[in-house]
Amino acid sequence: MKNKILICLAVFCTLVLTSAGCVGGQQKPVGLSGVTAYDEILYLGSVDGKIMAVDPAARKEDLPFPSSPAEWSFAYTVPSKGISCSSSSVPVTIYGTPAVIDGLVCIGIYEGKVFMISPEARIRNLDFPQARTGEWVYPKADDVIERIVGSPVVADGTIYICCSDGRVYALDATYGDEKWKSELLGDKLWVTPVLKEQTLYVSAFDGHIYALSAEDGSLLPWEFESEIGFVSSPVLYDDTIFVGSFDRNLYAIKIGDDNPLWTFPGGDWFWGTPVVKDGIVYAGCLDGNVYALDSKTGNVLWEFDTKNYIEDDRVVSSPVLVDDLLVVACDSGEVYEINIADGILEYTVSIGHPIRSSLCVQDGIVYIRSQDNYLYAVDVDKGKIDWEFPLTIE
Length: 394
Fold this sequence. Notes:
The chain has 394 residues and is mainly beta. The chain has a domain of 275 residues: YVTN repeat-like/Quinoprotein amine dehydrogenase (Methylamine Dehydrogenase, Chain H, 7 Propeller), CATH 2.130.10.10. It contains 3 helices and 36 strands. The strands form 10 sheets. It has a 4-stranded antiparallel sheet with strand order 3-4-5-6. Strand 9 and strand 10 form a beta hairpin. The chain is globular.
């Protein structure tokens, strides 16, 4: 069973988590980086391997980039390996969503480094890293750790990030020094950890939910074990962890318990992290359905089938809530706005390109980075695209 799951995972990752093609003589990264909003500015990783700061006000006016004093684009390259596209270096690949701490931008790259980026230095296009502005790289020099797929979590001056080597790393947010790294937790950690008080919870391919001390990375007494690995990052609500498994079930696991509170069967993997609010779990599934479940019982309150609109569609990214609407983006490029009271469709917006990254909501606008390397702003109240911006810029 485990080998079968790993084969399925490899096939899916070939479709979603791989790079292909050449751009300007370089191998083209893909990545699934989502969007983060901080102080009215959007931060994200592009399909062609840049970390960018985008001002929605300037993009709405369709001004040249960069027009706002806060806008910048930062490209970082790494040595090419194996067969290259006639270049000695290639852009990085970014799967995680940036985190912002005290105005600085933290991101992990697939090639095994963590960056702290200063907007002040990037606006001036200075050499990277500029230590005086708070920039750093971990590990330093030419060293790398294993692949990074998940996003960083920031709390109390510390960056927490999972790595494909099966460990969690804690880094000093000011200097980038390693505070601790956990013991080997098992299979690859492609997830974003969740932090509550002084405990980190991590879901793993080996079927465990691990609890670690945020202070020193030591394993805490409780852990949950399943015969089948977990595919999604965990979300925590009311002392219960909600997470998708390779057995096609969504699990609700009460912290401290050895058995699930409940499991809910889907027609495929729950790849995206669920969203929980007011006792309701909203979970998108690769079977094309979106489920609203009672957080205590797992009972279905309603379900929405995207395949009624696009045949064989998939929900890869996590949904987001905007007031009384659930916004769901699909692999087909369709975006659905669903009334959370009854699961009835309110609006459909068609982008026309695969959407696999996490969404961001600010002031009633949902920001979506799709796989055509455009950033879209969708006005939820109007149910239409407000503006779009190509991220492939010089």
